[in-house]
Amino acid sequence: MEVQILKSAIKESYGAIAKNDQTSGCCGDTACCSTDGFSNMNVAYHQVEGYQEEADLALGCGLPTEVANIQEGDTVVDLGAGAGNDVFVARQIVGEKGRVIGIDMTPEMVVRALQNNQKLGFKNVEFLLGDIENMSPISTETADVVISNCVMNLVPNKESAFQEVFRILKTGGHFSISDIVYQGALPPDILEAAEMYAGCVAGASEKGKYLGIIKAAGFKNIQIKKERLITLPDDLLLKYINDQDLAAFKASDSGIYSITVYADKLDAGACCEATESACCGSETKNEKAESACCGTTDTGCC
């Protein structure tokens, strides 16, 4: 799909969510929901400190702040901030001495976030209109931590996006990003559907490729902190594939997953806390589980 057409479709979809206060979950679109409104992508925030219900449009697929290791006084950048849900959670952690910046490419979302912040009165929170593939509003080495929630899958050029994340992070900083990926193979008709793209599925990358993009951008100590299988309802899938293809897909080892990925931006030549070189970008495989190189033993991504 042509990039500009795709971005226009995403802006239209998310702009409608921002204006109409839709909260159907799964990136705010019915694409990932069955006819009865079922969705299993979104994660509940109600017990999270700093949570603001009016900023939660049920657009996420994880809880990136939970494992982001944000400290008081940090500068945090949230990519695809929407109405400000994760920004306000991060603001609770950084406190008065810190700073939180939300960036989003949909004007209606930025307006909604600004309205929410005006009610809350936070002076160290700002929302910017911008493209994650070219974050010109944000200076180089601005952030201690970058977070994002179910947004990178919407970005056509993920290589540019992660290069930009690397640029805006301070040396010694890190990111925590929740996103949708897949393992195996998804039916082509699903991967090419505009509705499914806006619903965070068609834009997903194969898991190994996704982690490889992060490595190629220069990040070290790449870890999958959380992983959860996403089950799409049959009535949704049958909009794009036939019964035979559905049966083959369900019988395969393929699957769609929500993952939360963590990675560091380190000094040139520096390594992470572990003593094995696998954490620092070598092709050496590491058999340890979550602390292992990208949390996997077979991609060679780390």
Keyphrases for this structure?
single chain; 302 residues; alpha/beta; Rossmann fold; eight-stranded mixed beta sheet; 9 helices; 8 strands; globular; disordered C terminus
What can you see in these coordinates?
This protein has helices spanning 3-20, 85-94, 107-120, 158-168, 188-191, 194-198, 207-216, 234-237, 243-251; strands spanning 75-79, 99-104, 125-129, 143-149, 169-183, 205-206, 220-230, 255-264. It is of the alpha/beta class and 302 residues long. It has a single domain, classed as Rossmann fold (3-Layer(aba) Sandwich). Strands 1, 2, 3, 4, 5, 6, 7 and 8 form an eight-stranded mixed β-sheet that branches. Helix 2 links the parallel strand 1 and strand 2 (99-104). The longest helix has 18 residues, at 3-20. Mean pLDDT is 82; it is low at 23-38 and 274-302.
Indicate the proportion of strand residues: 15-25%
Report the mean per-residue pLDDT as an integer.
82
CA(first)-CA(last) distance: 30 Å
In sequence order, what are the helices and strands, one letter per element? HEHEHEEHEHHEHEHHE
Gross morphology = globular
- As a whole number of angstroms, the C-alpha radius of gyration is 19 Å
What is the domain tally?
1
* CATH superfamily descriptor: Vaccinia Virus protein VP39
Highest CATH level, the class: Alpha Beta
Number of helices: 9
Under CATH, the topology can be stated as: Rossmann fold
Question: How do the strands and helices of this protein lay out in sequence?
Answer:
Blueprint: H1 3-20, E1 75-79, H2 85-94, E2 99-104, H3 107-120, E3 125-129, E4 143-149, H4 158-168, E5 169-183, H5 188-191, H6 194-198, E6 205-206, H7 207-216, E7 220-230, H8 234-237, H9 243-251, E8 255-264
Parallel strand pairs: 1-2, 1-4, 2-3, 4-5, 5-6
Antiparallel strand pairs: 5-8, 7-8
Helix pairs in contact: 1-3, 4-7
